[in-house]
DNA sequence: AATAAATAAATCACTCTTATTTATTATTGA
DNA sequence: TCAATAATAAATAAGAGTGATTTATTTATT
């Protein structure tokens, strides 16, 4: 699969002009409200440093375009009551597709990030044909739930999918050929033929990171490191409050962080901290590994196997976090995944402990936190891709179209 | 020492306005010429996407201000001959100070990056008082070489200094107290009292990385990883063609990358790939380690000691590069340092070999290259700090002042 | 004649400054 | 206690200023 196909047009460094400036300031307003909740115009002016008049003009335009709406005036303070402006839930709609080990999931979210539609399909393993068909069908179904007016406001589809699917074959116990198909197919392009909104494709773990960045609860830090534990473990790197995907779109390939060497073979994080490893352990003792792919609430993994896995995984994560923190000096590390909440909590606790115990001079060890999104992070993150690209601050927004 | 004092004002996300736009486009023009050499206005317009008229206005202004100058018209093509515009060497001047293990070095460069003045001082170890006095004295001397007109165009001083100097004491065999002074002193502020140009302070290895970015020969890649081998080993991370220093200014603390664990103690890159290690090895065999601090051309380190050191150092570097590449997906890794050229070449060769041999799935291993600046990278990088801040593209340039 | 570089004049889009309006709370004086 | 007045803050209108763009023109060359 042409994984590069998601990458923005490489382009050299471009100049800036007035429309770029306006686009940037509009995104800034929307981003500030998304981060802080409803805010009056005067407050936006103070935060952004823009003049009150400029903010007034921009926000009235955004309101007229249906992206913002007035809240109840707040009285009780000296002066004219302030009118908080909030995101209008019908401002735009986004599709998010998660391609997973055992299932496909399509969600439809509104401008506030609320899931307003969901289609789910279980499969033995993902195939390009199956994914393309499911995508087109489910988008059709979900569009039916929207009014004709709302349909015009669909701003895109994001796809969260593990990269290098063809490397799965062995782990999945499938014939090499079943996965080889992914190498050549460009499902993004195929799906794009059917729809006239933009389509984005990203590594599933990076997408999950995007969900945390856009929809995460609490204050989002400038720079953080994110791990998502799925069939494999992957992650994302957030710099300056935006997801850094690098030149090839594969930055934050955190599963490939080496955590030790035996001879010439590096042991990688993915070898110890992914559900594939846990599955193997369960199967080795004659257990039924399918429980892993049910919604995590209902997991019933033998306690001793789980304990060993958490022990190994947290050691690997601690080492990986230390390595990554040296490179990018992050404020904190976050762990989420397709895990029951109590397993995630224990994994975070042990990782934090092992990181604290590790003696490393010269860097500050970031605190380790639990993700705030949980199991649905990948689908939500997928849907956040078109949202980020169109409505959130982005350095490139300043440049010429 | 308040190492944070260099960090840019934290500030939230700011809006953009016309002066920001113009400032950005001016920097863009200067950056394009610095990267590509002399370019005619029409070519700048094509690369930047700005209209020919806009570029014409901007470049005439820059010429009038003395930052650009006309080259010889190029004939031989259809149409009016193109006039390549180049950086004017007298456009601005910058001071760069390197604080090192055994010496201080102050350089003065012109707008082209050519070193036009240099003052050097050997010391047993760096003290805040010594550094402040040397700085003020040497700036005074070097200013005498400039005309009164040129003196007005001094745009700043950059200081490249190892962070956490107080951790040196043990390695240097000095009393703890000698280095404790650094913890409290803010030499940047002290020096700033004497001069009315801006002063920047940065980790010495990150500064060296900046030299590569600004003055490096050949095409500079978007994203790369940089190691500078000095008394300690450190580095820098370049993202989107700019030096990423992170929230605390300590990103690219590449010396702290863990390369293995024994019990709870992590072995770090700095333990195997710094000259401090080599010095220890030399002293252990009764040799004279002072040769290391002479200009590297005249090194005469026993061959067997050097061979062992290069072997260990390259193994550590290979592992560190693999780890960092997983996090940030860099185009390549670069190694430079206070080293004789043949040692650097061998170190790079072995690192590349060991990285190739290392089996790691899921990432592309970056090629390893030699730095193009060499021993003077730190002082040049220091001088590049005010240059970057005032004259090169920088996302923040677009925002309101 | 064709082509390309460079520029001039007019236009357009945007933010900023200054001044005004509006709605509210705080203070004052009978 | 109550009404009149002052102070304050939000919001906006009008006009100024700045900078990129468009269109047209000039210039120098093959």
Task: Name its key features.
401 residues, alpha/beta, Arc Repressor Mutant, subunit A, Nucleotidyltransferase, domain 5, 3 domains, five-stranded mixed β-sheet, DNA-binding, N-acetylglucosamine repressor (chains A, B), WH-like_DNA-bd_sf (chains A, B), WH_DNA-bd_sf (chains A, B), N-acylmannosamine kinase activity (chains A, B)
Please tell me about this protein's structure.
2 copies of one chain form a homodimer. Helix content of chain A is 41%, strand content 19%. The model of chain A is unreliable at 4-11 (pLDDT under 50). Chain A has 401 residues and is an alpha/beta fold. The first copy, chain A, has a 5-stranded mixed sheet with strand order 5-4-3-6-7, with helices on both faces. Chain A has 14 helices and 14 strands. Chain A has 3 domains: 18-87, Arc Repressor Mutant, subunit A, CATH 1.10.10; 92-208 and 379-398, 2-Layer Sandwich (Nucleotidyltransferase, domain 5); 219-371, 2-Layer Sandwich (Nucleotidyltransferase, domain 5), CATH 3.30.420.40. Chains A and B meet through α1, β11, β12 and α12 of A and α1, β12, β13 and α12 of B.
Short description:
With 401 residues, the first copy, chain A, is α/β, with parallel strands linked by helices.
Spans of chain A of 5+ residues with little confidence (pLDDT < 50)?
4-11
Remind me, CATH topology of the largest domain in chain A?
Nucleotidyltransferase, domain 5
The tally of beta strands of chain A, per DSSP, is 14
Which homologous superfamily in CATH is the superfamily of the largest domain in chain A? ATPase, nucleotide binding domain
Oligomer: homodimer
CATH class of the largest domain in chain A: Alpha Beta
Pfam family, one (chains A, B): HTH_24
InterPro entries (chains A, B): ATPase_NBD, ROK, WH-like_DNA-bd_sf, WH_DNA-bd_sf
Protein name (chains A, B): N-acetylglucosamine repressor
GO molecular function, one term (chains A, B): N-acylmannosamine kinase activity
């Amino acid at each position: 699969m042409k994984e590069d196909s998601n990458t923005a047009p490489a382009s050299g460094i471009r100049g800036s002009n007035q429309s770029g400036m306006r686009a940037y300031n509009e995104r800034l307003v929307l981003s500030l409200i998304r981060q802080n909740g409803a805010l009056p115009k005067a407050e936006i002016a103070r935060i952004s440093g823009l003049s009150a008049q400029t903010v007034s003009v921009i926000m009235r335009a955004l309101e007229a375009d249906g992206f913002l709406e007035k809240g109840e005036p707040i009285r009780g303070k000296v002066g004219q009551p302030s009118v908080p402006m909030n995101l209008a839930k019908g401002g735009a709609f986004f599709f998010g597709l998660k391609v997973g080990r055992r299932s496909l999931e399509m969600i439809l979210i509104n401008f506030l990030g609320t899931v307003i539609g969901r289609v789910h399909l279980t499969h033995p393993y993902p195939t390009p044909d199956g994914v393309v068909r499911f995508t087109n069908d489910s988008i059709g179904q979900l569009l039916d739930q929207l009014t004709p007016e709302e349909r015009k406001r669909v701003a895109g589809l994001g796809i969260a999918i593990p990269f290098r699917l063809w490397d799965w074959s062995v782990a999945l116990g499938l014939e090499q050929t079943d996965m080889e198909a992914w190498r050549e197919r460009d499902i993004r392009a195929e799906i794009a033929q059917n729809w006239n909104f933009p389509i984005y494709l990203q590594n599933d773990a990076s997408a999950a990171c995007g969900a945390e960045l856009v929809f995460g609860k609490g204050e989002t830090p400038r720079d953080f490191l994110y791990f998502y534990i799925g069939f494999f473990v992957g992650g994302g790197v957030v710099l300056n409050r935006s997801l850094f995907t690098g030149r090839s779109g594969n930055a934050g390939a955190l599963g490939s962080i080496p955590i030790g060497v035996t001879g010439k073979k590096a042991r990688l994080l993915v070898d110890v901290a992914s559900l594939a490893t846990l599955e193997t352990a369960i199967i080795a003792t004659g257990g039924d590994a399918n429980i892993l792919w049910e919604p995590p609430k209902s997991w019933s993994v033998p306690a001793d196997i789980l304990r060993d896995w958490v022990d190994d995984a947290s050691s690997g994560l601690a080492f990986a976090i230390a390595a990554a923190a040296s490179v990018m000096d992050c404020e904190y590390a976050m762990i989420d995944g397709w895990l029951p909440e109590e397993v995630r909590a224990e994994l975070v606790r042990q990782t934090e402990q092992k990181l604290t115990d590790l003696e490393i001079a010269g860097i500050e060890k970031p605190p380790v936190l639990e993700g705030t999104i949980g199991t649905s992070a990948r689908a939500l993150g997928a849907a956040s891709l078109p949202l980020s690209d169109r409505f959130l601050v982005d350095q490139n927004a300043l440049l010429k179209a």
